[in-house]
Amino acid sequence: MTDTLAKDHETVRAQQRTAAAQARRLKTLDSLFELRAFIALGVLIVVFSLLSDSFLTVDNVITMTRHVAINAILALGMLLVILKGGIDLSVGSTVGLSGVIAGELLQGLHLSPFDVVAYPQVWAVIVICIAVGALVGAVNGILVTRLNVAPFIATLGMLYVARATAMLISNGTTYPDLAGNPSTHNTGFDWLGQGRPLGLPVAVWIMIVLAALVAALLRSTPFGRWLYATGGNERATELSGVPVKRVKMAVYVISGACAAISGLIIASELTSAAPQAGDTFELNAIAAVVIGGAALSGGRGNVRGTLVGAFVIGFLADGLVILGVSTFWQMLIKGAVIIVAVILDQSQQRFRRRRAAASAVAVAAEDAEDDSRNPQRVTSEA
Amino acid sequence: MTTATRTAPVLRAADVTKVYGGTQALKGVSLDIVAGRTMVLFGENGAGKSTLMKILSAVESPSTGHIELDGRPVAFGNARQAADHGISIIHQELSLCPNLSIQDNLFLGREHTHQGGVLVDRAAQRKLARQVLGRLDESLDPDALVSELRLGQQQLVEIARALLQQARVLIMDEPTSALSAPEVEVLFHVIRELKSAGVAIVYISHHLEEALSIADDVAVLRDGRMVATARAEDVDLPWIVRKMVGREQASLFPAREPALGAAALEVEELSVADPTSPGRLAVDSVSLTLRAGEMVGIYGLMGSGRTELLECLAGRLPVASGVVRLQGRRLTGDIRRRIAAGLALVPEDRQRDGLVQSMTVGQNISLASVSRFVRRVLLDRRAEADAVNSTIAGVTVKTAGADAPIGSLSGGNQQKVVIGKALMTGPRVLLLDEPSRGVDVGAKADVFKMMAQQAHNGLAVLFSTSEAEEALHVPDRLLVLVRGRLVADVHPHEITRDRLMSLADGADTTDEAHHD
Q1: A229: chain B residues, CB-CB within 8 Å
Q2: Band of the pLDDT at B76, cuts 50, 70, 90?
Q3: I need a surface site. Which of A30, A223, B408, B454 has the fewest CB within 10 A?
Q4: Is residue B6, in this structure, part of any structural domain at all?
Q5: pLDDT tens digits for A199-239?
Q6: Per the domain annotation, does B72 fall within a domain?
Q7: Domain final residue, candidates B247, B273, B298
Q8: Residue B467, domain member (yes or no)
Q9: B484 within domain boundaries
Q10: Tell me: the pLDDT tens digits for B276-329?
């Protein structure tokens, strides 16, 4: 009798051990899934450094990071919009518009009624450009929240409107020289693109600061919580008294402002502003967010993932250039990476659901066993 | 098994378990369905009736156990395959495409084509549609848009679709909830006709008497388990109610000694337009007063306007006419302002309106009051965690912790989270729309106890229910809502179960309601 009991006990212990091992394996697999963007980045760096001596040099890494920064700044704004369950296709055009306005202001603004030329100071130029970007975002926000236009359509419309505005202001031509003139006290714009405080390009610093701000916004403010909730279940969030419309409005405004900052950096790096600048940049930004593990349906994603996503895209592009791979192949490889990223994300979600279901069935089985031992018990809440 | 059947069952559920997230909707349920007989399934909200129907019709697949058709185990991948084998379901929620015609809906996915098989043979479809609608006593134009039909007519279209599929087993989940009395008669006539043609019927309804009147066999589910099966002639209504509610009924409902305070919520002549069919009133000139410390129940069936009334009070639906006052002050503005003023709603549909599935238990609980924890600009997450943990303890949520995903909780515990979220906003008036829906018996008792506790603490509590037992035992005062109108305002001890059911059925107001 005691023998069989002991044996039973042993069997149970063995089963528990197997279950625990299984759980550990699933957990490891899950964290591997979680880190897939990091792993991809690591693989990229290793492969490119093996294939080219010039890839993993300090200078090259800094150059590549500067390229990454432009996309990452756009992607941070895009992340917020995507967390809400929206999309912002207008950011590339806003990049161009922002540069054009900087060009117009730095070349001197002709105020025809007064017959004077105004030369705003560089800080004022920056503020005005960011405000214009925010304005484009505000129009997106109004279209989406007040007029119920689908985000894809609203921002697609603004993609054309903002680009056309940039063309109209510049008359389709490039502003060739944004260096300013000492006599009009508006020099220094080129610092944004060419300055290197503490050895790092200004663009990289801006990326770091913005990433920290957005991360804090998401993690440690009610706004962040509201944003995740809105993307997860807008109805329930609204019924909880959250100002959902203001949240949606805000993410488009922030996305527009981020695009304007990117536009300023590009114009400053080149000390010239072309109205075509930023064409299709929205796609790279979306790709970075998606590779970073955010769900296009909203409610899931974070700053860390988005940054890694931007690095994957940037390092991949620059690495392929260094290796002399043709642009056609570059595009093909980038497309494949995006699709693989989304497939991996889907399988992670499926895997998690299976894991949850498996544990729930186990609980159910345990419950049924309890009940058969305890037929008197009527209620059972797992 | 007490089912005394001599013939072999056509469809059989064998030891079926179903798990949703952390909720066990069914726990080892078996059921035999026999050709030419009507099986009526009884059970309270959340007993697992709809889940079992979905599994029988392959809308959902069982977590464990299986389904047998003609004695052979089957595993249909989807409802379409089940329908091709003669198992049809008419859902509680209509599954028609309102933008298509009756004809298009009837033949959706099974279009009749001309020879060659490409073009739809509309003439043939129209003829068949006329025939089948004729069997249902409906002279509807097959080319009319479904969106132009009354809800009851849409229900009949749904039934016509099942008839067209030559169902051998026809499952009806609350088919009469939207039908008028004459339409119900027609439906019952069709059911009898189908039975004599050898079709097995599985039937669920909230109207117990009505359902019992057409039953050949009855089965009672409680808390995800099959607690009794019998032949209809061997049982009566009280037996069914006893089985549905279970022995511990008395302990389910807390005893109360209400201490009433000042008027907390006053509603005067409130009307609300029906959001789904503008031009109709979902709530029609309702007046009521709710005092602090009072727990008031609204008894009303689906479509009675109970949800619209509560959602309007919460600021979700606009007021068509009338005045609402909270503690003497006129209540206006959006949901946010009403929550700030001290009114919180626990919505009926937890998944759709109550919870954000992508967030944790704690984040869901603090969602409505998270801005309270701001110090300067950032959240004081420790203060938030403390408040969340004390709410979790206060509403007795069973969870691995505040960081657990909300989906890992059972239905009852998810409901407690939604209630906890509402309570955390510090309301003076607490509205709960069907708080016991999809909640098993143990958690149900907790929920009512919690509501009584809040009333004891001086909150005014207003809740809706479609369960007569709850309506008669939980509230201090009972309002009966029928088609948007308040038809009774009584002490629950002053009304009998029968009187309540017949009031709520609105038999005497049926005709006028359908013609205004």
Answers
A1: 356, 359, 363, 367
A2: confident
A3: A30
A4: no
A5: 899 999 999 999 999 999 999 999 999 999 999 999 999 99
A6: yes
A7: B247
A8: yes
A9: yes
A10: 777 788 999 999 999 999 999 999 877 788 999 999 999 999 999 999 999 999
Contact A360 B354 (CB under 8 A): no
C-alpha B230, offset from chain centre: 25
Is A216 an 8 Å CB contact of chain B? Answer: yes
Residue given tokens 């407690």 in the structure block: B416
How far is Cα A227 from Cα A303, in angstroms, rounded to an integer? 14
Within its chain, how far is the Cα of B417 from the centroid?
20
Who has greater pLDDT, A222 or B506? A222
Q: pLDDT tens across B182-224, in order? A: 778 888 888 898 898 889 999 988 777 788 889 999 999 988 8
* Model ipTM over 0.90: no
Domain total of chain B: 3
Confidence of residue A3 (pLDDT cuts 50, 70, 90): low
Stretch A140-146: mean pLDDT, rounded? 97
Q: Please check the confidence at residue A274 and state whether its pLDDT lies above 90.
A: yes
Q: Write down the pTM of the prediction.
A: 0.81
Indicate whether B159 and B286 sit together in one domain. no
- Same domain? For B78 and B225 the reply is yes
Contact between B356 and A229 using a beta-carbon 8 Å cutoff: yes
CA distance B358 to chain A (A): 6
Encode pLDDT of A45-103 as tens digits: 999 999 999 899 999 999 999 999 999 999 999 999 999 999 999 999 999 999 999 99
Least Cα distance to B356 among A306, A81, A300, A248 occurs for A300
How would you classify the pairing of strands B11-20 and B64-69?
A: antiparallel
**B16 and B35 inside one domain:** yes
Taking Cα atoms as reference points, which of B169, B152, B149, B101 lies closest to residue B129?
Answer: B101
- Tell me the three state secondary structure of residue A21: helix
What range does the domain containing B420 cover? 353-426
Interface check for A364 against chain B (CB to CB < 8 A): the answer is yes
Supply the pLDDT for residue B457.
Answer: 92
Question: Which residue has tokens 């008792």?
Answer: B445
> Which run of H or of E encompasses A118?
strand A116-118
Residue ending a domain, among B220, B247, B274, is: B247
B152 shares a domain with B22: yes
Using a CB–CB cutoff of 8 Å, tell me whether A375 touches chain B: no
Site from B349, B379, B410, B425 to mutate, A interface, most A CB atoms within 10 angstroms: B379
Q: Choose among A222, A225, A379: nearest Cβ to B441.
A: A379
Tell me, yes or no, whether B510 and B457 share the same domain.
yes
For residue B437, give the nearest of B447, B428, B452 by alpha carbon. Answer: B447
Residues 6+ apart with CB under 8 A from B319: B270, B271, B272, B312
User: Is the same domain home to B272 and B335?
Assistant: yes
- Whether B248 sits inside 8 A of A378 (CB atoms) is yes
By C-alpha distance, which of B437, B387, B434, B385 is closest to B411? B437
Whether pLDDT at A125 is above 60:
yes
**Nearest-CA distance A353 → chain B (Å):** 9
CB contact under 8 A, B357 and A232: yes
Structural domains in chain A, CATH included, are 43-345 (1.10.3470)
Same domain, B30 and B142: yes
Is A241 close to B370, i.e. CB distance below 8 A?
no
Is residue A189 a contact partner of residue A106, using CB atoms and an 8 Å limit?
A: yes
pLDDT of residue A309 exceeding 90, the answer is yes
Residue numbers in A near B423 (CB within 8 A): none
Kindly report the CATH number assigned to the domain that includes residue B92. Answer: 3.40.50.300
Query: Could you tell me if B180 and B289 lie in one domain?
Result: no
Q: Which residue of A has its CA nearest to B24?
A: A364
Place of tokens 């009526």: B40
